[in-house]
Design goal:
The complex is a heterodimer.
Chain A (H helix, E strand, L loop, with lengths): L2 H5 L6 E12 L2 E12 L3 E5 L6 H8 L7 E6 L2 E2 L5 H4 E4 L11 H10 L5 H14 L15 H13 L5 E5 L7 H16 L3 E6 L10 E6 L2 E6 L1 H8 L4 H9 L5
Parallel strand pairs in A: 3-8, 3-9, 6-7, 7-8
Antiparallel strand pairs in A: 1-2, 1-4, 4-5, 9-10
Chain B lengths: L2 H17 L1 H8 L1 H12 L7 E7 L4 E2 L6 E2 L1 H7 L6 E6 L2 H9 L5 E5 L3 H10 L9 E5 L4 H21 L21 H32 L1 H6 L5 H29 L9 H23 L5 H5 L2 H11 L14 H4 L3 H15 L3 H29 L2
Parallel strand pairs in B: 1-4, 1-5
Antiparallel strand pairs in B: 2-3, 5-6
Helix pairs in contact in B: 1-10, 3-8, 4-7, 8-10, 8-11, 8-13, 8-15, 10-11, 10-16, 11-15, 11-16, 15-16
Classes of the chains: A alpha/beta, B alpha/beta.
Chain lengths: 252, 381
């Protein structure tokens, strides 16, 4: 953990504080005493290969998996606090949409479950469809969309409630480079509104857009810092190499 | 529990159905199809059975009027011709061969002294011998065999009565307490209604919910403010609505097309079947917890269909089920719906008499909905 994080003492300046998160599936340890601190208004990237525990960590904090050990608090609320669901958004790794609903109906549903009124949903939907480039497809059934379009619809569904804290699991998978760049611009815009984003990706190069990144391997955080710090510490010039070095145990 | 959020789920499920024409067709065309096929193909009453009568009876010369009397002719004339198609033979052996060849189902033989024995016996009870109608039937088809024997017995009883023959006993079954003039199909349609609603609603919810689990949308919902109870109640409302519409459709069709009698309150029959729809959808959600993929859900179908079909009294009364198996009928929800619906429609019973069936259905609904909710909670493991 970087010294910089330790220096910021006040608990309520953190959107995520996870301590010793451990998750076992039978004999397999998916998360092994995983610690994480994410500051409010930060874009934090969790990086690592498949099976590193990124998705497990996110699912635990989104209440989809129970912890074997450890604890966490989100936006200053301890786990189990009834107010958390209203403040936290989640975009799962799989597409997870209703194929027999239109793009609009999917977005509307995920707005309504957060208690948004129709006018708010309409306003945000218009903005989101513009950003994910699906304006023309608003009234198409999801089953008729391509994989990439489904993925963008899924992102729009996660963003419509505009919660204070967003967990996005691989949001840029299968998205073309041009659109990926516009995604990151949008995340920056959300950040400017004070929204905290925790994002997982295995595109190492795109992690440079994050304020801070954490490398995960075998259920543990093996290195953490701003992209520049990490490159400097590992003496590498790409995050890919930096990860390999970290994985060898070169860092902490 | 936030009812508004629950309704959001209901609305979404209904929108999905609206956009899915195939499933929509399954919901509204399949019940009518099933009812028509079962109703027309399974009327239950056997008819037009070929039999051969070998009448060797020489009759009896009435000493006063000098006319020859033949009781056997009268019996033959009284046979219900809708049930039996009567052909005549002169040789018993040749007629039996016809049955053996499958050309006919039975040989009915009147002996040469049939009328004579009968008359003598009536004059003098101690006269030796009996007037016997010999029925040799192909009983390999039990229904047909029984129908032949019943038709002959009925003809005998009718003749005794009409001819004023002296018989020490008679059965009078003309005054039915319920169901006078009822046919098998009248009995059958309420059963098939319960069966169809149960089957289609359970399957539809099962498949839809397995889809929610496998596509990740269930996880996605569970990560929102939606609570398990709101999801389950939202689903219950949606499939309660479709089940109710199905019921209304089936009732209308049954009454208008099959002319089934409704002795009691149609509304009550409707409520009973609608309750079954709610029980069925809860069962669908519950079962979905045990299927990892849609294909696995398909494997449940025999376990849903067979007990409901065989033990719930759809085709035959539960009294026909071996007594050791009968307790299982009582744990099958369609049993109560079929029993209650039949009692209301055919006997005209009211709430005062079918309340127990309704209580049982509400009980099933509560238990299944609670268990369905628990399976969702267990998902966060």
């Amino acid at each position: 953990m970087s010294s910089k994080t330790k220096g910021k003492g006040k608990a309520d300046s953190f959107a995520v504080v996870a301590k010793g998160l451990t998750k076992q599936f039978g004999k397999f340890t998916a998360l092994d005493a995983f610690d994480l601190k994410v500051r409010k208004g930060e874009v934090y990237g969790l990086l690592g290969p498949n099976g590193a525990g990124k998705t497990t960590a996110i699912k635990i904090m989104c209440r989809l998996l129970k912890l074997t050990a450890g604890s966490f608090s989100l936006l200053g609320m301890p786990m189990g606090d009834g107010r958390i669901p209203q403040q936290v958004g989640y975009m799962p790794q799989e597409t997870a949409l209703y194929n027999n609903l239109t793009v609009h109906q999917n977005i509307e549903f995920f707005g309504h479950v957060f208690g948004l009124d129709n006018a708010t949903i309409a306003k945000r939907e218009a903005e989101l469809l513009e950003f994910v480039d699906l304006v023309k497809w608003r009234d198409s059934l999801v089953s008729n969309l391509s994989g990439g379009m489904k993925h963008r619809t899924s992102l729009a569904c996660a963003l419509v409630p505009q919660p204070e804290l967003l967990f996005l699991d691989e949001p840029t998978v299968g998205v073309d480079p041009k659109l990926r760049a516009s995604f990151w611009n949008y995340f920056d815009m959300l950040k400017s509104k004070g929204i905290t984003i925790v994002i997982t990706t295995h595109y190492m190069d795109e992690a440079r857009h994050c304020d801070r990144i954490g490398f995960m391997r075998a259920g543990r955080l093996i290195a953490e810092g701003t992209p520049a710090e990490i490159l400097k510490r590992t003496g590498t010039d790409s995050l890919e190499d930096a990860f390999l070095k970290a994985a060898e145990g070169a860092v902490e | 529990m936030n009812p508004k959020r629950s309704l959001t789920v209901t609305k979404r499920v209904l929108f999905e159905l609206k956009n899915d024409k195939r499933t929509l067709a399954m919901i509204f065309i399949a019940p009518i199809f099933a009812m028509t096929v079962f109703g027309l193909g399974f009327s239950g009453d056997v008819h037009d059975i070929k039999v051969i009568v070998v009448n060797q009876d020489q009759g009896f010369l009435n000493p006063i009027s000098h006319s020859n009397v033949s009781i056997s002719e009268k019996i033959i004339a009284n046979i219900d011709r809708d049930v039996l198609v009567v052909g005549y033979g002169s040789d018993v052996k040749a007629s039996i061969d016809k049955v053996k060849n499958g050309d006919s189902y039975a040989v009915i033989v009147f002996s040469p002294d049939f009328t004579r024995t009968l008359m003598m016996k009536m004059q003098n009870a101690s006269y030796s011998g009996n007037a016997t109608v010999k029925v040799m039937a192909d009983k390999s088809n039990v229904n047909v065999g029984n129908a032949i024997i019943k038709a002959v017995s009925d003809a005998v009883a009718k003749t005794i009565k009409k001819e004023g023959l002296k018989a020490p006993m008679e059965i009078d079954a003309n005054d039915a307490i319920y169901g006078k003039g009822m046919t098998f199909i009248d009995f059958f349609i309420p059963g098939i209604m319960g069966f169809v609603v149960f089957l289609l609603t359970t399957l539809l919810t099962l498949i839809t919910f397995v889809g929610e689990r496998t596509s990740g949308t269930l996880d996605r919902m569970l990560a929102t403010p939606l609570k398990e109870s709101e999801i389950v109640v939202g689903y219950a409302t949606a499939f309660g609505i479709t089940g109710t519409l199905q019921t209304a459709e089936l009732l209308t069709f049954g009454i208008l097309v099959f002319g089934i009698p409704v002795e009691g309150n149609v509304g009550l029959a409707f409520i009973i079947i609608a309750l079954l729809a709610i029980v069925s959808q809860a069962l669908g959600i519950l079962l979905s917890a045990f299927a990892k993929r849609e294909a696995q859900a398909i494997q449940f179908i025999p376990f849903i269909i067979l007990p409901a079909l065989l033990l719930a009294g759809v085709f035959w009364p539960v009294e026909a089920i071996p007594s050791w198996l009968r307790p299982f009928s009582y744990i099958i929800p369609p049993f109560y719906a079929v029993e209650g619906c039949r009692a209301v429609m055919l006997r005209g019973w009211g709430l005062d008499k079918v309340w127990l069936d309704i209580v049982a259905l509400v009980g099933f609904a509560v238990v299944f909905l609670t268990l369905a909710m628990l399976t969702l909670k267990m998902r966060r493991k």
